[in-house]
Task: inverse folding
């Protein structure tokens, strides 16, 4: 009967508009929820089968919720370095537990990036979901896979301990006075036969110099350079120079201070690491050609490749001319390159006072973690108070062919659905994935003016549907009264 179908159509109108009101209410309630995506009730007609000549039967209306998951909210600046927003497409991959993840454990997807470091050092958002990313391996590499969630790990910034870096390079900017008076030891060394006090790197060296006893040879000039070992311990190298009787040539020695820091092979004494001659051109620059001609007699036959190679503390006994760090130090092997020919300075010989303009070294002492930074590519970097930086992981972003059909779950997150398609894991800024904004959060996509307007129209539609029911009721009452 058409009046009955009108009643049912009115009821369906009440139900549909109630669902629309629920969607609006959900939106308004989440107007300040980070990364929230608004939803909206959408209506579709329901048409019953019609028999020709039998009147019209109303089918009513059906309401479905449409989720605007792909709509991006505005990024807003915050003061926390671990707050993350996505400028563009993609979702953070998160899990409900941090450790011992099995392949059967669910992976969720969210744009709510209000992450904080929990008591175990994991990054967790306000819904209790843990951020996933690709870890950095021992070689500093990141192995990514667009379809393998098993390669992701919960990002942990609390497990990063202190760090140190060994010195690998020394740049020396120093001048040796060209008019330096020639010492008696250098004069005796040039005599034939050598004099009683002749300088000799093996028997009467600058490394043996003791100002209290007068033993050894006093250097005309000496430079000390602090270096860091593999544990961040501070070691000292000394470069000693003694002017030769040959113009533009100096005797030179490099030694460890104290000598007990190294174990040396035959030919090296009192902590010596390298001995030989240094030659300069007539305009005061280091003469690489002359040093190459000296061969083994030069401090470094090739000044452009001036390197000291320290063996590890637990290495085999050093060969002649080689050296190890002392066994008691327990440190690793180390190579230190000397830059003596820097364009801006280097080792020179001008007629001014012997002086060190600068000694520049890399390597650092032990440092503690001071802060964690996340860049736009999603790289999580630990910064230490000694200036060292170390990458920990890279945040993974997931994209979907149809993100609007993802299934909503509690915690402002989503699950994969049949309609959404398969996820693709991507690095930020590649393959259509957006960039990550650190110290930023994505605002809710709810527009209050739109929602309040929707409230008015939904209320009126609900009232109109209820009017259908009262009108059909009155018509049925009239029909029943005909019998009386």
Result:
């Amino acid at each position: 009967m058409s009046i009955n179908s009108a009643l049912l159509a009115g009821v369906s109108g009440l139900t549909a508009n109630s669902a629309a009101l629920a969607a609006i209410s959900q939106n308004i309630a989440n107007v300040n929820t980070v990364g929230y995506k608004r939803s909206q009730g959408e209506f579709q007609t329901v048409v019953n089968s019609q028999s020709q000549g039998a009147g019209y039967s109303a089918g009513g209306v059906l309401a479905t919720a449409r989720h605007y998951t792909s709509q991006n909210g505005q990024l807003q600046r915050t003061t926390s370095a671990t707050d993350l927003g996505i400028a563009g497409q993609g979702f953070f991959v998160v899990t409900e537990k941090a450790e011992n993840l099995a392949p059967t454990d669910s992976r969720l997807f969210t744009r709510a990036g209000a992450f904080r470091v929990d008591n175990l050092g994991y990054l967790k958002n306000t819904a209790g979901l843990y951020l996933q990313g690709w870890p950095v391996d021992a070689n500093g590499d990141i192995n990514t896979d667009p379809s393998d969630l098993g390669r992701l790990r919960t990002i942990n910034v609390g497990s990063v301990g202190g760090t140190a870096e060994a010195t690998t390079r020394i740049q020396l900017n120093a001048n040796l006075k060209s008019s330096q008076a020639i010492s008696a030891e250098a004069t005796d060394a040039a005599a034939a036969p050598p004099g009683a006090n002749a300088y000799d790197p093996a028997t009467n060296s600058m490394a043996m110099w003791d100002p209290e006893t007068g033993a050894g040879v006093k250097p005309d000039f000496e430079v000390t350079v602090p270096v860091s070992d593999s544990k961040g311990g501070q070691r000292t190298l000394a470069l000693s120079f003694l002017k030769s009787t040959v113009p533009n040539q100096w005797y030179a020695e490099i030694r460890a201070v104290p000598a007990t820091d190294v174990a040396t092979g035959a030919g090296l004494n009192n902590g010596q690491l390298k001995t030989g001659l240094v030659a300069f051109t007539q305009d005061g620059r280091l003469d690489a050609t002359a040093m190459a001609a000296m061969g083994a007699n030069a401090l470094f036959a090739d000044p452009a490749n001036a390197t000291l190679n320290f063996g590890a503390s637990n290495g085999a006994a050093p060969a002649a001319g080689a050296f190890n760090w002392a066994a008691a130090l327990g440190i690793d092997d180390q190579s230190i390159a000397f830059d003596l020919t820097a364009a801006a300075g280097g080792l020179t010989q001008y007629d001014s006072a012997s002086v060190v303009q600068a000694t520049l070294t890399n390597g650092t002492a032990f440092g503690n973690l001071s802060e964690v930074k996340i860049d736009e590519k999603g790289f999580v970097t630990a910064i230490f108070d000694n200036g060292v930086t170390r990458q920990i992981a890279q945040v993974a972003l997931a994209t979907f062919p149809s993100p609007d059909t993802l299934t909503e779950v509690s915690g402002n997150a989503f699950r994969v659905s049949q309609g959404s398609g398969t996820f693709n894991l991507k690095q930020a800024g590649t393959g259509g994935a957006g960039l990550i904004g650190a110290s930023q959060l994505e605002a809710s996509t709810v527009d209050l003016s739109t929602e309040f307007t929707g409230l008015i129209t939904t209320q009126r539609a609900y009232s109109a549907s209820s009017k259908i029911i009262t009108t059909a009721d009155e018509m049925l009452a009239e029909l029943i009264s005909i019998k009386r």
Remarks:
- The chain is about 15% helix and 30% strand.
- Residues 208 and 216 are 5 Å apart (CA to CA).
- The helical segments are 2-29, 184-190, 288-294, 448-481.
- The chain has a mean pLDDT of 90.
